[in-house]
Amino acid sequence: QVELVESGGGLAQAGGSLRLSCAASGLTISTYTMDWFRQAPGKEREFVAAISWIGGSTYYADSVKGRFTITRDNALNTVYLQMNTLKPEDTAVYYCAASYRGRAYHRLDGMDYWGKGTLVTVSS
Predict the structure, then answer these.
(1) Of 32, 35, 33, 24, the residue nearest 1 (C-alpha)
(2) Among 51, 66, 78, 114, which residue is least crowded by beta carbons within 10 Å?
């Protein structure tokens, strides 16, 4: 009984902001590196950001570094992705994923659990 549920997606204007949430149940996020991935239409799913299970170190794809911030609230068992200065090319379905004790923080095939995704659409 593990579930990751994303929320906060929707429409935003270029230059605007959105905050995505990933609420976890059936696992404790403090023992997992938590990742965000995204998949645009016709493209491969790609790594966006990760936060380590220990120490809280963060990692970002070059395409979002300086604009997106990943955080976690262990008390709420929730991970967030603050998305600022949005661009139309950020349009994608965003997925939350969990990797037990950070065994593969950035790899599609390294994730133990996946959410169903939330759609972000950025207009010009």
Answers:
(1) 24
(2) 66
Instruction: For residue range 32-87, list pLDDT tens digits in order.
Output: 999 999 999 999 999 999 999 988 899 999 999 999 999 999 999 999 999 999 99
């200065």: which residue's tokens?
A: 85
**92 Cβ contact partners less than 8 Å away, ≥ 6 residues apart:** 38, 39, 40, 43, 119, 120
State the SS3 of the chain.
Answer: CCEEEEECCEEEECCCCEEEEEEEECCCHHHEEEEEEEECCCCCCEEEEEECCCCCCEEECCCCCCCEEEEEECCCCEEEEEECCCCHHHCEEEEEEEEECCCCCCCHHHCCEECCCEEEEEEC
Q: What angle do CA 121, 41, 36 make, to 5 degrees?
A: 65
Reply yes or no on whether the pLDDT at 102 is more than 90: no
CA distance 66 to 84: 9
